[in-house]
Amino acid sequence: MVVSSAFWMVFLLQAGQVSAAAPSYTQTYQVILRGQPAGTEIVSERTDKNGNLVSSSEHDILVSDGLETKRVAFTTELILAKGSRTPVRYEMRYTSGESHDSCLVTVAGNQLVRTLIRGSRKSETATPLQPAMVIVESNVYHLYEQLVRKYDAKKGGRQIFQAYLPPVGADIPSALTLLGEEDVATPAGMIRARNFKFEFVGLTNALLSVDKSGRLLRFFNPEQELEVLRK
Description:
Elements lengths: L4 H17 L3 E9 L2 E12 L5 E12 L4 E12 L6 E8 L7 E7 L2 E8 L2 E8 L5 E2 L9 H6 L7 E8 L4 E17 L2 E12 L3 E7 L5 E6 L4 E5 L1
Parallel strand pairs: 9-10
Antiparallel strand pairs: 1-2, 1-15, 2-3, 3-4, 4-5, 5-6, 6-7, 7-8, 10-11, 11-12, 12-13, 13-14, 14-15
């Protein structure tokens, strides 16, 4: 059987497109509230055709106030520029409920522009984009890895960063303090972990553990009785 060159050209192009779209990293986390499994965060990363890093996540959590339990599900996508890893775009979109609220952050010149949609209401704010600023959501746990990547291990101690919180539409100081290293047991075996104290300065504290690549292993906020563990 003779196969035309046109067929092979189409085949190779399609194969290249599939390969480019395949994630280079995936991870699943279990969310634990008040000692009980409450949901998951599923993360994947890929590189787009421009060389930008695209980090996507799916979240599905059961939240209870003691009287009623509600399902909260949403997706996120963060795009970081090739090389500099500065924010290009961020979107959070609720997939549970009927309103499908969303939060979109884009870069316009030297500003971050946040568009928030809640029901039929739409609001927009602009914040100056500062050097080394990172986008962080308090309940999107893999995003804390960005702060770890900026931490200067040689300098050590408590280091301050500017974290932009999309729902608030503003940046606040955040801090990491290296507490030390230890071997921790995970489903994949023993992993050497670096432990940090994390702060939204003046607001809340948590413990953050990452592996040698700076990937999240554990997030623990005792005030909220919240723990996030790599599965």
